[in-house]
Amino acid sequence: MSALVVTDLHAGYGDARVLHGVSLSVGEGEVCAILGPNGAGKTTLLRALSGMVRTRGTVRLGDADLAGRSPDTIARQGVAHVPEGRGTFMPLTVEENLRLGAYVRPASRRARAEVDADLERIHGYFPVLKTRLRQAAGSLSGGEQQMLAIGRALMLRPRLLLLDEPSLGLAPLVTRELFRIVRTINEQERTTVVVVEQNAHLALGIAQQAHVLETGRIVLSGTAEQIRADEQVAQSYLGYRV
Amino acid sequence: MTGFLQQLVQGLGAGAIYASLALALVLIYQFTGIVNFAQGELAMFSTYLAWQFTAAGMPFWLALALTLAVSFAGGMLIERLVIRPVEGAPELTVVIVTVGLFIFVNAAAGWIWTFLIKDFPNPFPGGALEAGGLRVSYSTLGVLVVVGLVMGLLYLLFQHTRIGLGMRAVATNPDSARLVGIRVGWTLALGWGLAATVGAVSGVLVAPLLFLEPNMMGGVLIYAFAAATLGGFDSPVGAVVGGLIVGVAETLAGAYVGFIGSDLKVGVPLVIILGVLLLRPQGLFGRAAVERA
User: Fold this and answer.
1) Known InterPro entries for this protein (chain B) (predicted)?
2) A11: which of A38, A55, A193, B292 fits an S-S bond (Cβ 3.0–4.6 Å)?
3) pLDDT digits over B248-293, tens only?
4) What is the helix (H) or strand (E) element at residue B270, kind and residue range?
């Protein structure tokens, strides 16, 4: 069963149209990778899903139609977006950043206990964050901030997790570690994930299916294996021939 | 020595009032990046409301509570109706809007209550506390206590409540705040409401010391600007410290620097503003804006 169904999605900024009718669906608990060159509209696609840009078309998450809703409403529907640039609340502490992720969850005593438990769980995924809880988030390294951003997103207990270029600006070793954790999270929490990534090799490593976006249109779709085997993709994004 | 301490305490009393209006300025600046030139006039209007309520026979503290509630709602309403339409417009546009608001509120107060001065009841008893030759009037003490209380409440709100955390999130990264589900528009309105409430406190505190009239906050606003500039426009703590320093500096300069006296001491905040902008533009507690080349 599909968790996310996007149909004929158009989006843009002012007069500049960026997405021209994107359709895709992602199965419950699956990871979907969006590949493509710079300027293809990958980030805009994620921003359209989380309501950060004006859109036309439909975005169904379970029974809810998200298209045209405001970002805070979409977040309340269980969509967590780790934006390009990580969206860190720099002067706030690491713990405050994480707790903000749970901002829309109810404030009852039981719910608060659950939030505390989730905080512990996230320390399990990212032990480094636990040692820096009282530190200003802006003092973290790039890799740590990316972990914080993913941790913050998980605090929502999302039904859909949107990851925008998690590898951006990170050392290769850190990036590999990060993708390993994302895979673990996906396996343990059954969270549906849409990940936009320049590093196609890593993204295809954790995804079940993938789409290649070029100038605002999907030009190729398939399972991760099919996309990896595609000669054109291999040349353009993987840097080697099959 | 006693004379000096006497001046110091008096300066702190004045400074506490500047601090509360500076705090209102900083609250709005933090959330919206807007310097609200109308902040003093809003405080003045609130003070007239308090006067109207007491004139209608309401006990002072009840009138105050009602005034603060109305100011809060009024601040939110102004954000929704006047500021919202120019959100994201160039800075100059927003500045002009707040200056327009200044003129409008000032004129409206004059139209409703006339420009004749009115006596505003002093909520604190007359007389003074005397200790070791030092006389501290109950009025000064009362001002310090009330402003201290306001600071304490704001601190609790920002540091220990969910709404406060959300407000700080919006102040630091509005886009990211939207993504975690915070209703940013309402949070900004909330910030304006809070600022109007804090400003109202400063108006009600200053009115018994001056007279109630539509232009009474003009001078106080300049001191508050000096305080916020000195402390750093993005730092609530800075606003308070800045306010106290400005109050003390003004009082001491008036008392001890011969050629300044009580006539020229209004020049003190302007000297402070100029000095801070030249030497440390981000203020004592503010963060310097750093941009990569």
Assistant:
1) ABC_transp_permease (IPR001851), BCAA_transport_permease (IPR052157)
2) A55
3) 998 888 888 877 777 777 788 888 889 988 988 888 888 776 554 4
4) helix B267-279
Question: Which domains, from first to last, does chain A contain?
Answer: 2-238 (3.40.50.300)
Nearest to B175 among A87, A90, A152 (CB): A87
How close does chain A come to B96, measured CA to CA in Å?
26
Residues A169-217 have pLDDT tens digits of: 888 888 998 999 999 999 998 999 999 998 888 899 999 999 999 999 9
The continuous run of DSSP H or E covering B50 comes out as helix B39-55
Q: What is the CATH number of the domain that holds B256?
A: 1.10.3470
Q: Which of B169, B175, B287 lies closest to A92 in CB terms?
A: B169
Q: Report d(CA A197, CA A173) in Å as an integer.
A: 16
Question: A52 vs B178: CB contact, 8 Å cut-off?
Answer: yes
The pair of three-digit structure tokens given for residue A64, joined into one six-digit string: 């809810």
Tell whether B285 is covered by a domain.
no
Residue of A nearest to B162 (CA): A103
Residue B290 counted as domain residue? no
Give me the domain span that covers residue B84.
Answer: 2-279
List CB contacts (< 8 A) between B287 and chain A.
91
Q: Residues of A with CB below 8 A from B166's CB?
A: 100, 103
B287 occurs within a structural domain: no
Distances (CA, A) of A169 to A58, A70, A143, A144: 33, 29, 8, 12
Asked if the Cβ–Cβ distance from B168 to A75 is below 8 Å, we say no
**Which ipTM value was assigned to this complex?**
0.90
Given B169, B172, B179, which is nearest A71 (Cβ)?
A: B179
Side chain identity at residue B103, one-letter code: I
For A71, the closest of B162, B173, B178 (CB atoms) is: B178
The answer to whether residue B269 is domain-embedded is: yes
